[in-house]
Amino acid sequence: MGMWKGLDCISRDNLGQIQGIRLRETVKYAYENVPFYRHKMGEAGIVPEDIATLEDIIKLPFTTKEDMRSNYPYGMFAASMEEIIRLHASTGTTGRPVVMGYTRRDLENWSEQVARICMMAGVKTSDIVQISFGYGLFTGGFGLHYGLEKLGATVVPFSSGNTERQLTLMRDFQTNVLVSTPSFALYMAEVAETLGLEPAGYGLRLGLFGGEPCSDLMRQEIEKKWGMKATLNYGLTEIVGPGVSGECECRSGMHICEDHFFPEIIDPESGQKLPPGEEGEIVFTSLTKEGVPVLRYRTRDITALLPEECPCGRTTQRMDYITGRTDDMLIVRGVNVFPSQVEEILGQVKEVSPHYRLVVHREKDYIKDMEVHVELTPEGFTDSFPEIQKIEDKITSRLKTVLSLNLKVRLMEPKSLERSTGKAQRIVENEEAVAE
Ligand SMILES: [Zn+2]
Questions:
Q1: pLDDT at residue 330, rounded to an integer
Q2: What's the domain range around 414?
Q3: Ligand 1 center to residue 318 CA distance, Å?
Q4: I need a surface site. Which of 94, 239, 328, 371 has the fewest CB within 10 A?
Q5: What's the CA-to-centroid distance between 7 and ligand 1, angstroms?
Q6: Under DSSP, is residue 306 helix (H, G, I), strand (E, B) or coil?
Q7: Which helix H or strand E contains 386, and what residues bound it?
Q8: Are residues 301 and 319 in the same domain?
């Protein structure tokens, strides 16, 4: 285990040397084994030898989700099926899924990355960890599973759903660490409460949350209800799955496994690389992958690299929390809105909970209007119309100040919005209203 912490504490010079060697190898390997990359580099007028240093990476073309989809299922694979021993895939709710193939060495590296992330979060070998991520093609369940086993914790591979039974076994097995989406952790707490049980009585001490962005409000709510420390981690199927980055005990951004994944921040409009500390789209290049090497993958996630040293002593760079996704961005009457901005504003209003929906009214291709539906907390609940009006007005005026948009706010009864056992569905299309 000490060895992994060692990798996160390596000097920046040594790390840069390792990254340089691995980048050159990866580019050459991708060029020789993936026609897609050979073709793209040919179009850009470059050969692998042009990438001699880490700075040269900007010469490489980007890879997008569309590129991966149009090469479905195996067009991005560099290794043969002889060498591939596992497949995973993204959900593909908005098109063809992205398929990932892993060689034996890829799976060993992935377990090591996840083990490092879990150790950073504070998981110990004596912990009993319930994994409530779905097992299957989704990378979350198996990714955390093998990483936690590698670390030496006791894994309870529950998978998602079946909430009451999750709670029963959590109590019976004396589970003290939970792995899930933040939405599911909140949902489980509500189910426990409806059963007349106090979530804080379950004895969870630590949560590892990923699979969707988690606002400060959600994190506080989870910590308050379960009486646990909630940590966040980050990853995506197109790169590897979970294990790309995670929080240390300082909880100020997520340390990237930089010996495996090289990060850049770019301006999502121009594609230009941005200086350290500036917010933009995060782009990753894999440095050790054999099955599906990835060159400059555009994640569409908006964040920044934090240039300051972390007090924990790790030298790996941290990325800030995801403030939005470029494909989540809504353009309402010409104004760019990220759901996370609305969530942050709601987080400042004590009468409402983290459960909300953005109901979008479209006309042809553009968004004519958007309503914010948000649940009152049980404590904030009231039947009084003037009271409700007052809270709605307060939220409307804050939204207007921050977003320069006049949006209708509708307060909902506690627990009236549909709950998710996976990622929360924040944006709802309302075609009926358009027809009105
Ligand atoms: Zn740290």
A1: 84
A2: 330-435
A3: 8
A4: 94
A5: 13
A6: strand
A7: helix 385-403
A8: yes
pTM equals 0.84
CB 374, CB 355: distance < 8 Å: yes
Contacts of 385 (CB under 8 A, 6+ apart): none
CA–centroid distance, 171 to ligand 1, in Å, is: 32
Statement to judge: residues 21 and 73 lie in one domain: yes
**Last-in-domain residue among 325, 354, 378:** 325
Q: Give the integer Cα–Cα distance in Å for 52 and 320.
A: 29
Residue 213 Cα to ligand 1 midpoint, Å, equals 20
From the CA of 228, how far away is ligand 1's center (Å)?
20
pLDDT above 70: percentage of residues in the chain: 97
- The amino acid sitting at 315 is T
Higher pLDDT, 150 or 328: 150
Instruction: Give the list of residues 6+ apart from residue 162 with CB closer than 8 angstroms, or none.
Output: none
Residue showing tokens 């924040």? 426
Q: Report the separation in Å between the CA atom of 42 and the middle of ligand 1, taken as the mean of its atom positions.
A: 40
* Distance from residue 153's CA to the centre of ligand 1 (Å): 21
Transcribe 133-192 into DSSP letters. SPPSSSHHHHHHHHHHHHHTPEEE---S--HHHHHHHHHHTT--EEEE-HHHHHHHHHHH
* CA 202–ligand 1 middle distance (angstroms): 29
| pLDDT at 1 > cutoff 60 | no
Token pair 């921040």 is found at 265
197 and 268 both lie in a single domain: yes
Same domain, 160 and 32: yes
320 Cα–ligand 1 center, Å: 12
Considering the domain architecture, whether residues 33 and 82 belong to the same structural domain is answered as yes
Distance in Å, CA 258 to ligand 1 centroid: 13
Q: 18 C-alpha to center of ligand 1: Å?
A: 21
Same domain, 105 and 201: yes
Q: Which of 192, 197, 281 is nearest to 236 (CA)?
A: 281
Tell whether 358 and 377 lie within a shared domain.
yes
* Nearest Cα residue to 239 out of 274, 175, 283, 199: 283
Does 370 lie in the same domain as 303? no
Q: Using CA atoms, how far apart are residues 185 and 231, in angstroms rounded to an integer?
A: 12
Q: Find the 6 Cα to ligand 1 centroid distance in Å.
A: 13
- Cα 247 to ligand 1 centroid, rounded to whole Å: 7
Distance 422 CA to ligand 1 centre (A): 28
According to the model, what pLDDT value does residue 3 have? 56
The band of 433, judged by pLDDT with boundaries at 50, 70 and 90, is: very low
pLDDT digits (tens, 9 = 90+) for 27-86: 999 999 999 999 999 999 999 999 999 999 999 999 999 899 999 999 999 999 999 999
